[in-house]
Amino acid sequence: MPGIAVSILFCLIVSTQALFPDDPVPCKYGDGKCIANFANTLFSKRSGKEDPSLNLWQLDPLKVDKMVINQAGNSAVGIKLTFTDNMLYGIKDQRVVGVKGFGKNLTEQHELRVLAKSYSLVGPYNIQGKVLILPISGTGVSNMSMSNIKMIIRFSGQPLEKDGETYLDVTNFKLTLKPASNSYLFTNLFNGDKALGDNMNAFLNENSDAIYQETSQSTDRAFSDLFLGLVKGVFAHRPYAKLFMEEKL
Ligand SMILES: *[C@@H]1O[C@H](CO)[C@@H](O)[C@H](O)[C@H]1NC(C)=O
Ligand SMILES: *[C@@H]1O[C@H](CO)[C@@H](O)[C@H](O)[C@H]1NC(C)=O
């Protein structure tokens, strides 16, 4: 009889394990290593499909309905660059390398340091404005890429009570991106004038560091809006206490 019990137990373990072979275990409050592991498993193994348990849609490629890089003012680059129905590639290869916060006190500051090999935002664009001294305009398909990116995300939270549970309502969300290099490809610039368009693409890539410097604040803001949506979604979906495991005494 014990043999049967053991084999039933064994089957149960095997079948539950087989359901979610890569399921990471919940982390203790403030356990940065575990939280980084959890996130990295999510990126590397599960970013290809949505994850209803965390209220996440597909992460790679990530649908970007709209992103606007609006660099106004007196800088050397004055552009309004609008991306619609784009895809962002690269989240599956990003890794969390540092975590602070996520303790019991949800109002303290939380921080994630992330390294990403590359981000490519690909899809329809519209651009108007000037770059350094040259006017630029166009509507077509673009690929704006960055590589070897260091990203820091910081946010704090306030408690949000709902149905007797406490959720973390994300506030003060700030993100900075530092790519080692970046590149641009805009098809169909200047109403499809190929010579002008080719020259402009070459010019943008020759000056990509300077252009990135001039547009980094608006790029950070645009990516903040995008990633804030993801982070807010996760914390709005599950009570804060249920994202973590109580430490056993
Ligand atoms: C939680 O963190 C906030 C911000 O750091 C601090 O002001 C507050 O006193 C903390 N609350 C507790 C109960 O430790
Ligand atoms: C976008 O550009 C990057 C950098 O040149 C390239 O590696 C990537 O394959 C391109 N993506 C698409 C979908 O064309």
TrEMBL record:
Signal peptide: 1-18
InterPro entries: Haemolymph_juvenile_hormone-bd (IPR010562), To_sf (IPR038606)
Keyword annotations from UniProtKB, A to Z: Signal
SMART domains listed in its UniProt record: JHBP
Pfam families registered for this protein in UniProt: JHBP
Parts forming coiled coils: none
Protein name (database record): Protein takeout
Chain's gene name: LOC108073273
